[in-house]
Structures
1.
Amino acid sequence: MGKAPGTVTYMGQREGAKSILSVINYDENTLDIHEVVDLGQIDFHQKSEFTSWIDVVGLSDELFIAELGKLTQINPLVLEDIVNTQQRPKIDEYENYIFGVFKMLYLNENQEIVSEHLAMVLMESSVIVFQELQDDVFDGLRERIKSKSGRIRTRGADYLFFALLDAVVDNYFVILEHINHRIEMLEDEVYDNPTNDVAHRIQELKKEVLKLRRQIAPVKELVGRLLDSESSLITKDTKLFLRDVQDHCIEINESLQIYREMSMSLMEMYMSNMSNKMNEVMKVLTIMASIFIPLTFIAGVYGMNFDHMPELHSEHGYPIVWGVMIAMFIGMLIYFKRKKWL
Amino acid sequence: MGKAPGTVTYMGQREGAKSILSVINYDENTLDIHEVVDLGQIDFHQKSEFTSWIDVVGLSDELFIAELGKLTQINPLVLEDIVNTQQRPKIDEYENYIFGVFKMLYLNENQEIVSEHLAMVLMESSVIVFQELQDDVFDGLRERIKSKSGRIRTRGADYLFFALLDAVVDNYFVILEHINHRIEMLEDEVYDNPTNDVAHRIQELKKEVLKLRRQIAPVKELVGRLLDSESSLITKDTKLFLRDVQDHCIEINESLQIYREMSMSLMEMYMSNMSNKMNEVMKVLTIMASIFIPLTFIAGVYGMNFDHMPELHSEHGYPIVWGVMIAMFIGMLIYFKRKKWL
Amino acid sequence: MGKAPGTVTYMGQREGAKSILSVINYDENTLDIHEVVDLGQIDFHQKSEFTSWIDVVGLSDELFIAELGKLTQINPLVLEDIVNTQQRPKIDEYENYIFGVFKMLYLNENQEIVSEHLAMVLMESSVIVFQELQDDVFDGLRERIKSKSGRIRTRGADYLFFALLDAVVDNYFVILEHINHRIEMLEDEVYDNPTNDVAHRIQELKKEVLKLRRQIAPVKELVGRLLDSESSLITKDTKLFLRDVQDHCIEINESLQIYREMSMSLMEMYMSNMSNKMNEVMKVLTIMASIFIPLTFIAGVYGMNFDHMPELHSEHGYPIVWGVMIAMFIGMLIYFKRKKWL
Amino acid sequence: MGKAPGTVTYMGQREGAKSILSVINYDENTLDIHEVVDLGQIDFHQKSEFTSWIDVVGLSDELFIAELGKLTQINPLVLEDIVNTQQRPKIDEYENYIFGVFKMLYLNENQEIVSEHLAMVLMESSVIVFQELQDDVFDGLRERIKSKSGRIRTRGADYLFFALLDAVVDNYFVILEHINHRIEMLEDEVYDNPTNDVAHRIQELKKEVLKLRRQIAPVKELVGRLLDSESSLITKDTKLFLRDVQDHCIEINESLQIYREMSMSLMEMYMSNMSNKMNEVMKVLTIMASIFIPLTFIAGVYGMNFDHMPELHSEHGYPIVWGVMIAMFIGMLIYFKRKKWL
Amino acid sequence: MGKAPGTVTYMGQREGAKSILSVINYDENTLDIHEVVDLGQIDFHQKSEFTSWIDVVGLSDELFIAELGKLTQINPLVLEDIVNTQQRPKIDEYENYIFGVFKMLYLNENQEIVSEHLAMVLMESSVIVFQELQDDVFDGLRERIKSKSGRIRTRGADYLFFALLDAVVDNYFVILEHINHRIEMLEDEVYDNPTNDVAHRIQELKKEVLKLRRQIAPVKELVGRLLDSESSLITKDTKLFLRDVQDHCIEINESLQIYREMSMSLMEMYMSNMSNKMNEVMKVLTIMASIFIPLTFIAGVYGMNFDHMPELHSEHGYPIVWGVMIAMFIGMLIYFKRKKWL
């Protein structure tokens, strides 16, 4: 805030790490993997017969990013978005490249949802991928490139761009599955044991679904914009595949909508269970009090010390009082039985 | 997940079964039914004067599907959708065919709603239908073809495609009827006996309506897209019929919307009944306690053992106390009567 | 269900009655009323200088409808909609006629809302009206034709079509008035005496408003479509009047929306009244118990039988205890008064 | 209802009053005010160099309105809307005039919102204003005309039409202010003293906001339509001012939306306060009962009349029992203190 | 209200202060700061090679504003909006200038959100900024101009306009952060100590979010309109930056939407916690009453004074009664333990 627009400023929480650059060059027959490279080794402008997947890990190295920006002639506003890890999903088309920001979502070892900033730049024959951490959701894709499985090796950079996006979106389904599982667990708990903690976790879930919607929902529209784009960087063939990604995005958005309604239902169910519990508590109290308070009164009457209480001196007084009290007891039981409180 | 896009991967839960192919060829005068056929026996490309209904049951036989894909030159992405039993409804137009995925919904013997994946490919003179199980909602249509009733025998493949879709959509009404019936039953139960289980079933219903909406709602828009399509595969005449299907879809969507609101009303009604019950319980308690606690106090007073309590020795003490107590009792009854608690 | 599309199948509950046909022919100077006519007597195709209002009562006579369809060359899909009494409102334009389905709504003698299926076909110089029962909302219109009041006698079939539709829509206002009246009554009852039955009737009302919306809401859009239509059957002059009908429809939809929100408010008000009642009940209980339980305790203390209880033998013990108890009683009263519970 | 469309029928509740006509003619230099005029004195068709504000008060004089309609050649459908005091806001363009219906809203002496029907017809050089009562919101405007302040005297009839509409919309802000004030008062009352009457008034408020929305919300769109209109009656210059009116309408609609949400929040707050009160009541009851019921039990034990109760004969029995009871009393107080119930 | 449209009337609450004018002229090499200037010193129409930031502080000096309006030939309607501090955000394009109203939002020293009216006029080579108070959010921008950091010194007035708007929007994020912080604090309090005051503050928060939405939400659309504008005042280059501002606006709107849902969740959580507390209170009451009322009854029975009560004279009567009472006590404890109430 307060900085000039277009200033390359890292927004994340992993300051000080150096950016690491790796490159995979491939065509149908060749495969070249360079684990760690220097910026100077890559010629971004020479038209290549290879497709290059250039991977930048670590976004806090502002000098590196600025240097890369100079070499690739990427607009400073784009560089700013690349390192702004709070940037919401977006796709912008420029003359020579298409730039996109997405959120990679995956579960960490504690089964918590991790959201990682991902920026991608599609150029003529290369895709530059910017990510904060080494972890990503692209291992399957790397495997496919190495093993030549699928179409990936026979197609160009636009297909690589699509394949990366597809991997990101595919992983959203894992997250949805996780959310679904949590909803089901909460459903059981609401039914069995609706403690205050369950209510709290339902609200947590609602918040998480809201956050996911924010990170995922824009993607559908962005892909739609790519489909309508007239950029020469994306072939008609690849658009066919992008349409598939769009389908997935629609499905994901629908699921999130449904999860939202289900979490609201959960809360409703919780409140209704609470009411039920309260009803039960009140019934116990009412039954106990309604039965024994009148009986106590009767006992109290014959505990009075008046000189002239003929009942006290009658021989059958005591058993008669017991009789009356038992009759009242049974009467109340029948009454509550009829009301279905017992 | 993690697979290359366009890979034909069965997503359902019925692995290992072989696909069975059957064919019905017909025109106005001829009818040819082949119960079980080999793939090789069908020539998908020869323009035929017959209309062919090609039925594939069983989607886990990936080799078979791939082979069929090769013969029909159906796009691998389409094949992927055909065997992806989780695919949401979609219609895609290609140059030589129109491809659609729908959900067949029917009630099983336990009156549970079953959702079955259905894929259809409309070609020049044939419709290929892909389904997971032998069960389907097309028996009436088969009968009509056999008995030459209606228009079906006099029209082409596009009409067959419509008729299949029409049968699917018609069956949605059966499901709606079932939902409606459940809502009415729940209404009665909420009124008569609002147990926790009823609340649970209302929430179940809400979830089911949400799920149905997801499976059914897209169909309306898809049919709309067919109506706007300029594909030569669908004649203007058939579009007239499709408009009817679209009308039905609109009606179904409206019904689902109404069912959703009604299930929310049910929950509201349930909560209001719970409140009512609680009120009733509390009234019983309050009446019993308010009447007998003061009376018990009076009895207690005259159970005290002070040496100097002149009332105790008065001859009329005891009957007077009884009189006071009865007066208080009657007073309370009148009070509660006035408050309409009795 | 399961029938071939375009099959003329009566869907209502009044099987077996014969259709009755009546005709009113009129122009500015002539008026010809035929109460009961045979189908054969009408020539549907001869261009007439008269405007004909052809009224068909009874839709279960499938033979009659089919015969009429043949004579008028109405599309079988339209015939299907004519006898399908569950058909939602629709307007379809064909080359030679415009077809519409609407719901006539009126109150029966028990002040219940009756919904009657109405189909109308506008042809060059006639309007064919299909209705299930003799009852309808067109008596005022018939009167106007007979008495030559208004414009009706000087205009053509399109104006008649409009006038019929206008009568249907005008009657919706009667229904709205009825709903409004019920809401006001329920408001009073919720305030005065919120029994469970009132909650039930609020829910009934909500359901009825939902159902009305479904039957009425589409009309607005349908009329809009007529206004945009380029059919030569509707003159520019009549469109001016149709715009008025559309205005009414907008107003009706807005009212229904407001009634919906008001019925939700009613339920809220009901719940808040229930809470209030509960609060009141609890206050009575709390006041009674809080006052008398401690007093009873004190009485209990001096009812104990210890040998050495000096207070019991003090001459002023008894009046002092009474004093303490009265002081406590007054103290509690003041306490509850301060809390505004009394 | 049941009347022929286009019949001029007064719909209000002030039957029998005669319509009164007054005219203000003005241009930059001249000002001519005629308090009461006869219809015959006005020439509606002669093109005038003056701008005329023709004011008709009283709409139940159907003969007068009909006569005026004949003289001005206003369409009968428009006349019908002019006298239909239930007509919702609308603007219709005709070849020679633009017709609008609006609701004047103002507060009466009891601070109740009064809604008055207002119809305006903009012609070449005059605006005819139809209102039910002498009261209106145009006094400021009249003053401006008389005192030559602002632009009004230098501009034509379209500016007058705008100025009238502007006065109507400006007064909506007064109403909003009033609503806002009521919301703030209710907020205080909900917080201080949430009686049933407050809930009732919140619901009243909600209803009133709904009604206002219905009367005000359409104006925004209507003005938008005027802005898009190509009628020669409205100059480009005046449209600049109309855009301002539209801005106000947007603001008003937003405010109404916010008031709606705030009244819903009020109800929520009310319910939460009710719950709080209930909690407080229950705590008092629970504390009193939990403390004194066990103590009473102990007193009861030593009130028993068994022959062999050694404690009774112990010299220290009585003080020990008191000690136990006081200890229990203090224990309970500490317990409730810890639970923060005290 | 009641004033003629286009009258310059100050609407704020800081009457009587004189307007203060300051000017910053700059190009890439030159920087000229004039702290306090007279209106006459500025030539608004001479095309300048410098970019001028003209700052007007204080809007209640109507004479000054009117004079400035005359010199700059700004439309009186615009002047009216400039001094109308209640004006909602708007952007209007005129031939020679673009006019915008926004709300500057910042936190004051009490951490309350302050909303300040801001009007800006973009002309050929200058931007006139109107603000009520000396305080603003532009210090960072002034610094950048002075220190030549960023692009600002190398670009024209349109970039200055963008930079000002960017500073305003950037500050919205500070406000969002503040809201977010308050939500988190309330979440904790709802969980720990749900007093009535917390409910009140949740409602306050909801109201504040509503108000913010009203002030912020329109900006997104306004910037969108600037992006579509064909005015020559805004270069294509600057539009690239405006697109960024629009992105921020979208993000802000989404956040506000989420905060709204979260504040509703807070209220739900509060209500559910209240229910929980009530349940707990009721359980304590029920347990205490259910255990001791029956025991007191038993004690009462043996406090009766009948002559013939054989138990009283049995030697083991007293210990047996104690045994029974302890057994009942333990029985009840087990019962409540099983119900998980303890």
Note: The radius of gyration of chain D is 35 Å.
2.
Amino acid sequence: MTKYVYDFAEGDRSQKDLLGGKGANLAEMTKLGLPVPPGFTITTEACRAYLTNGAEPAELSSQISDAMAAVEQAMGKQLGDPADPLLVSVRSGAKFSMPGMMETVLNIGLNDQSVAGLTAQSGDDRFAWDSYRRLIQMFGKTVSEVPGEAFEHALDGAKAAKGTKNDLDLDAADLRAIVDAYKKIYSEHVGHDFPQDPREQLEMAVRAVFNSWNAERAVLYRRQERIPAELGTAVNVQTMVFGNLGADSGTGVAFTRDPGTGAQGVYGDYLSNAQGEDVVAGIRNTVPLQDLEQLDKASYDQLMSIMAKLEGHYQDLCDIEFTIERGKLWMLQTRVGKRTAAAAFIIATQLVDEGVIDLDEALQRVNGAQLAQLMFPHFDLSGNPTHLANGLSASPGAAVGKAVFDSGRATEQAAAGQKVILVRKETTPDDLPGMIAAEGILTSRGGKTSHAAVVARGMGKTCVCGAEALDVDIAGQKFTTDGQTINEGDVISIDGSTGKVYLGEIPVQPSPVVQYFEGTVAADADTLVAAVHRLISHADGARKLGVRTNADTGEDASRARRFGAEGIGLCRTEHMFLGDRRELVERLILADTEQEQEQALAALLPLQRGDFVEIFEAMDGQPVTVRLIDPPLHEFLPPLEELAVRVALAQERGQDPGRDKTLLAAVHRMHEQNPMLGLRGVRLGLVIPGLFDMQVRAIAEAAVERIKAGGDPKAEIMVPLVGAVQELETVRQEAEAVLKDVAERSGVDVPALIGTMIEVPRAALTAGQIAEAAEFFSFGTNDLTQMGWGFSRDDVEGAFFGRYLEQGIFGVSPFETIDADGIGRMVKIAVAEGRAARPDLKIGVCGEHGGDPESVHFFHHAGLDYVSCSPFRVPVARLEAGRAAGDASAADSR
Amino acid sequence: MTKYVYDFAEGDRSQKDLLGGKGANLAEMTKLGLPVPPGFTITTEACRAYLTNGAEPAELSSQISDAMAAVEQAMGKQLGDPADPLLVSVRSGAKFSMPGMMETVLNIGLNDQSVAGLTAQSGDDRFAWDSYRRLIQMFGKTVSEVPGEAFEHALDGAKAAKGTKNDLDLDAADLRAIVDAYKKIYSEHVGHDFPQDPREQLEMAVRAVFNSWNAERAVLYRRQERIPAELGTAVNVQTMVFGNLGADSGTGVAFTRDPGTGAQGVYGDYLSNAQGEDVVAGIRNTVPLQDLEQLDKASYDQLMSIMAKLEGHYQDLCDIEFTIERGKLWMLQTRVGKRTAAAAFIIATQLVDEGVIDLDEALQRVNGAQLAQLMFPHFDLSGNPTHLANGLSASPGAAVGKAVFDSGRATEQAAAGQKVILVRKETTPDDLPGMIAAEGILTSRGGKTSHAAVVARGMGKTCVCGAEALDVDIAGQKFTTDGQTINEGDVISIDGSTGKVYLGEIPVQPSPVVQYFEGTVAADADTLVAAVHRLISHADGARKLGVRTNADTGEDASRARRFGAEGIGLCRTEHMFLGDRRELVERLILADTEQEQEQALAALLPLQRGDFVEIFEAMDGQPVTVRLIDPPLHEFLPPLEELAVRVALAQERGQDPGRDKTLLAAVHRMHEQNPMLGLRGVRLGLVIPGLFDMQVRAIAEAAVERIKAGGDPKAEIMVPLVGAVQELETVRQEAEAVLKDVAERSGVDVPALIGTMIEVPRAALTAGQIAEAAEFFSFGTNDLTQMGWGFSRDDVEGAFFGRYLEQGIFGVSPFETIDADGIGRMVKIAVAEGRAARPDLKIGVCGEHGGDPESVHFFHHAGLDYVSCSPFRVPVARLEAGRAAGDASAADSR
């Protein structure tokens, strides 16, 4: 016979799959001998059976009876006993926390008789009738689907009749009348009377919790959080205890350490003569937990001892909920507590110092997202700035600027050198130019998957969204909040990490963690820096993945090196075709003869060589992977629309459009429907004679110059957009000839690897062939994601990613975290087949995923040699690479 | 000891890997007892050993000596004997024919002494000295790399001195002087004298053939033809025989049947007193083979008997080369002969009737490319039109129109209702609009991989390119050829199947094969139609693959059904948004409110429903796969550039741009960098509420209407561009709700499958997940190729495909034949994993590859249920599907 019901004394915390998170922790506390109100857990297996068959398993009812009997015996009371009723709560509790998604019913066991027994036992008839009222209301809404408004309406009516707005002004008689009204509402909506049988109440409540697993909001939440739909929820049935039975009662929440700062010593709040929901409702002010010592020393001491025991047992910061019922302490919940990023680092190292855990374990207690958060600058709030509103922390950072209310104004002002914050009700693709121009984006509508949020995160731009208190008036170019009006040009400050909006310019403080990485602050400067230093050093010792950086200039390379980069994984050469060199590129494109083309290339050669000399110098002794030119050449020309209008207007005015006409013809000739899928990368190299040769020559000559100066340049030449080994083989042969020529002319041998990006799906699928011609692979996971999914980031991120995230089609944007099932599968195929063909193949990744925590774990388990990311992400990658090396299994790191 | 040398008497035709094609067939003829000049073959293995080690295998020399001794014994002569020299030829012969790619040396064995012996034996001193001259020239050029011009120059000098331009005017003394000059040229260029030792000549010639395997042109040819580089070539050493020793000598080529028409009876040409190369050079006119009966009845009778024997033995049309030396017949070569498309069908069925082969084998003797050729209309040349020039048959078809010389004129004239042929020196992407507007394209430069050829084939447009006799004068808007001038507006006719260009309008005759498929001509109308009917009927019985069609209208569907389509595999619905419905689509796009959007959709519903009713009626009883709307909506609006210029000009003129301004704003808002990777397909369906619902409703209501009328509609609803199962699942749930609603309202149950395109790489890689929500898959191999390779067909076909084909990066465009290694691999993954998840999953393909012969074989072996192609390709697919079912193995059909 399957066991569907576990007494709290039977389970333990390892059984989250079966008992859910809440049930497993209640069992663990019971096992530890802590004072947990007796109860039992109905397993997720029972829920799954119910959902599959549409009915409870046959054995369930008798197992509940047995468990209930044990609880009754432990409490010395009977469920719903008219004289002295045992009351229970029925709460959902799934494996993964789904806050607010499923149902709870309190006070099961009350009915027209037992309400009198509760009155007698508590000596408080208002309390008893209020408890009964709450039962009918929660049960009616949750179990029997009575519209909540019906009850609210009746309650509001009673208060209005009494001339008050406060529940507390209702006395026992009022509440009794409300109970009558509620029962009538119930039977009208449901078609039968509110069930008086406590056991019937219990079974209906359990079934309602089972059903709530498939409620629409729960389904949506699971899709978004990627929680498997087949898990089901457990149900916890637990004896009710009451903190609102007088001054010797109360309720509280506490942490074993300060979750905000990581400071040692317990931390919490207490509210006398109150139930848990009152704390949340914030009706009365709580007192610091320490005050309980005065109020009830015995309970306080017992609580302190329990918290020490729990922390020692869980070996981590715990948070708890407790209730004191007439001087008796009851533990209602515990779990490993959430904490701020700084606290995470500090607590982890404290626990090491206390001998509780070792450094390997400490490393698993922090993560790259936390480290990244610590690297953002933050506002110095010591000046007590005016707080305007709270929104959602959509994209982290601290931004200050003049408020502007449309995209055009934003670009104008930014072009005039002003720092601006773009304020909108919500954004659309039309706002893109303004979003690019602004320091930050603030919206009054939309959640973390709104257009503004998704696009800002994609751009790495500070964003606060959904600040609903703002009344944004676009036509009037202003917003008002709480009586204050902010007009265009007024300075505001927004904090994308906290969602807070302030008036005026708030000073921005640099991150001490960044200062430590920069070397301007010592490793023991403060507790946080010391903790970061210790854990990242440990990660460096543990990690198998190398960490390189994406850098296009000597300056970027130097900074990345200070941040711990062990080479450059991606040096983009197209940036070397911009600025004052654009004119040479135009000459190259507009060349009528091969000779003109050669002249333009020859003029570019020394400029590129100079760039490489700088980069090799900054990265001396470390590998530098140079990607040959990738974008289509027409990207170096002015936009089609602009030229077309200029030429048309010049002709209309009888003027000579001159050079514009030549450029327009070239743009027309080179126009591509889908430039991302056009003449770029290796295709350019194969079609335009001499282009790649010039770049390879610049690299080789720069290396020679460095070697002659005593340096140690390590060039890796990377060919972009290869889809077939024949492409790479052709380029490789030409590049080798150039390297040989430079070596012969200079008398210096140039050691250089030749390899390829793996960024076209076909390259991944034919990696075994391509490895025959490649000394290294570097995954370009941006393009691999774009082509593998068939969407271009620029076009789709704003157009539908928000909708996709809301609908749960994505759990997370595949541009943020690598899509393991699809794109990751190609990575794994290419690693396996590339190495099979060439066992010493070097393999890395240089897409933006290289700095994403979850993706770093994926790349570690996929067996890559290194990741490469932007300089600021290098520490994050180092930390996560260390953590990945300690992952228990090759499973993902969810 | 490895055997590197095979006497012709030792091998047979199965040994092409080892002996090459030519050697294997010489051995086969020897084995059959035919009069083959004695000789031997040095194996491909010897070549491979030589190329790997840079030297001949040690055993080779003695094995050649043994084989040479056997030949000498058979001929009763010694190699290079001064009194009566045995002469040999040395010829390459690889497994796959590489015409003209590698080297040949004739007359090995001649030297300063043996030339006298040859004179004595032949009684012809001019012949002997001419033979010696030829040896030095061929040997010098081929073996010792003397520039060919050096010899040409000396020969021309001698002719000039004699005041002639004809070799035949040189007498023995002249030729003797030229031999002296040649020997001097040889030693000057090579550094030592022309080798007099016949054995040394032989060994040097063999080595030169080995080396020619890696000559640049051979490498390029192999890359283009996808012939593996490691095969190596065999070398055939064969006794020379001479057809130019008098009236009782001669040479000829013959076929066992007419390769042009398939008519029974031998067919060939004979040239008395000549060598093989004289036939090719066309210096004298050949006579029909039948005339040989008068000249030399014994040889003729022997030849007839040999040809009958060969055809019986090879069970197929054979072509042969032979020489008669003083009344003695020698067989120099045989192989299964090439033939025209019509002859292929006719001969295959003749051989069945003759009891030589069965129908299964006959089916393997024809192919879809031949059938496709028979389906093009052709010119009726009975009026003896003026032939202007020959070019390359770049893209088949027969096109007639007025010559125009630039793209702009072509579009203007076409817009005015004129049929035009675009004539250019060569085309560039600028010419694209004109190419689209023209009936056909004619160029004077460029090969079959030129821009014109690649783009025209991609468009299915008639093209003749590289017609070098044309002198095209773009500025003068004319071309001249052979003294004739064709000006703009003059009518010309071009035949893309033969490469011929004619003056004036030639009547175009419909293909009788098409008339047979259309049902306007009976299956026994003529020999060709009867043969096609017989073989395609046999293919239908044999094939495992279903054949459907891509059709968007009832008319197309009906035609395809006559052509044998068994349903529609792709019905594109976006065409239903064009024409006079465009205004509704604009309303949908510009809608400010959901209500306006709904109104626009409601107006489209009955129109779409009407389209589906027609299609269901045409395909009654057969499945109709309808693809929901795929392209981005902005494709239904006017182009950005056009609108921008119109608005700018209106403003400049102080006019109100009106609706253009609204449209421009919409186009700006919806503009995408890469529309192929933008908001289209399922993404549109998920983002625009009601769009897919409207289409599903139109399909369902049309099905209901047909059912009520007694019809049998079989709808399959196909969702485009799915990349993740969550997308499909969401659409599927909504579609099912609409189907249920229509069923409830109408009281008629609508049976419909819901499935998806597999056209995004990620869909193929997660096919196991996607199959959970799909009742069928249809591979969109066009998009899968575009995204898998990362190139958009529109942008790249003209920009670099020609270059890629030339450089051998492609053997064939991946848009013509599916790329088995890359894109095909995704197809195989998706088939295996889709079926594993859902064993009854229906799988087809609806990309253009569905009608490509080689691709059809691939899809058969990949295990698909059906292919779908354009109506005209349906017979090709039927034939190839039948052939694929008879493939000996799952290997590809190269």
Note: The first strand of chain B starts at residue 5 and ends at 7.
